[in-house]
User: What shape does this take?
Amino acid sequence: MKAIWYFEEIDLFHILCPYKYADHIKHSPPFTYHKNDFLFLPNETSKEIFLITEGKVKVGYYDDEGNENIKTYLTRGELLGEMAFLGQMTHRDFAQVTQEGTQVCRMSVDKARELARDYVPFSTEIHKRIGENVRKLERRLEILFFKDIKRRLIELLKDLTEIYAVPQKNVVTNEIYVHHALTQQEMANLIATSRKSVSLLLNELEREGKIRQEPGKFWVSDSLFSV
Assistant: This one.
């Protein structure tokens, strides 16, 4: 692993002084998980925060009937369990690995708070990420309020474009390239529909010229944002 606690705009490996970095690796080495392993379950004590360095994790909850409801999927560079940093004592959700060989860095809440006190960039970035995660979850709930499944899918595609778009735009086709990590089933889970419905609607959007798709990636036309 090249670095620990890598974020989009900040690499904390270059912030932590060497003895602190060595100390963290010694006590909290990276963990590798198998598919379907749980990082935590509802009502378990919140003692750590997690950073995904490779792979994918789903976060969700169980309703009163025991049905699984997915809130989000997290991939490389994304944080989870972060509410413990703000004082949440127990987990309200579950976090389950969905990709074999997923790697996660785990840091105790006490250690994270110590680093936040010692390093202003760490404190700034972790609070920023907590805010971003809250906004993403709020956006997921907003999407579910769209009654039409096609509209919910379009809103999800817009969100994926905002998060995973590659900076360079195709000047020939005027399309935005989006490299994401969601399967059609996972997209269906996020908008409360079936994989078949997602597949049919993606094909419909492609016929309309709003997207072009390949496994794990797609190109978005400007016309999608005018819908």
Notes: The domain at 12-144 is CATH 2.60.120.10 (Jelly Rolls). The helical segments are 18-27, 109-118, 120-144, 149-164, 184-190, 195-207. Residues 1-21 have pLDDT under 50 and may be disordered. Residues 187 and 208 are 20 Å apart (CA to CA).
